[in-house]
Amino acid sequence: MTSFPAQARRVRDDGLVPNRRLHALRECTLHCAPYGFRATWHHLVVTARIPQRLEDDPDALVRAVQELEHTRAVLLPVAYAYAARRRREKAAGSRTAATPAPWNSWGWCRVAYCPDPEHHPTAPLGQVVARVLDGWAAGVDADRQCLACGTERHRPGRACPICGVHTGGPATVRHTPSAEERWKRIWRREGMPAAAGMPNHD
Ligand SMILES: [Zn+2]
Question: What domain of life does the native source organism fall in (predicted)?
Fold first, then answer.
């Protein structure tokens, strides 16, 4: 797997066939998937309006990668700062993090994990990630309040009923057969209308 910036350049390269560009976008999403890969992918398909026939609107791929780049710009400084602090703590003889960040062990790219690929926040990814990281830094109890949307949580073992984020992380996932079917439909972008007939929501 090559780096995010190299893959992002491929997404933008209109000399490549659209399918190659789509696969580069997939690589980018594997590097940066705040909701987990599937829910992040679904978010990108919907918000960037990636059509089933990529030739109808190849620029949709650029819109999607731009959103990932914005998200990464929010996430990376925090991840680097956390890593640097851990190094300092270890050098000072502390084996355990003073402020444990659970998503550090899930991979930073899953900070707002959504077990259901079709149920995730609708705001821009970068905004949601910033909210979650700010909430964590401010010491918000993620078992009582959703870090992504602020909803009070009564059933900490479940994903947030409003925005779909599960602060318990990927370990909470159990993919059922129907979930696998739905994922295949999302991956084929079934139901995404052709770009020409689409209303403009911008
Ligand atoms: Zn929520």
Answer: Bacteria
Residue range(s) defining the domain that contains residue 144: 4-197
Report the separation in Å between the CA atom of 24 and the middle of ligand 1, taken as the mean of its atom positions: 30
24 assigned to some structural domain? yes
Backbone angles phi, psi at 84, to 5 degrees: -65, -40
How far, in Å, from the CA of 196 to the mean position of ligand 1? 34
Residue indicated by tokens 């995010």: 4
Instruction: Kindly state whether residue 202 falls inside one of the protein's structural domains.
Output: no
Tokens encoding 118 = 């079709």
Token digits of residue 148: 């992504």
pLDDT at site 200 = 39
CA distance 143 to 159: 10
Question: Could you give the number of structural domains in the chain?
Answer: 1
Neighbours of ion ligand 1 (CB under 5 A): 146, 148-149, 151, 160, 162-163
Residue 15 lies in a domain: yes
Q: What is the pLDDT of residue 93?
A: 79
pLDDT tens digits, 114-169: 999 999 999 999 999 999 989 988 888 888 899 999 999 887 778 999 999 987 77
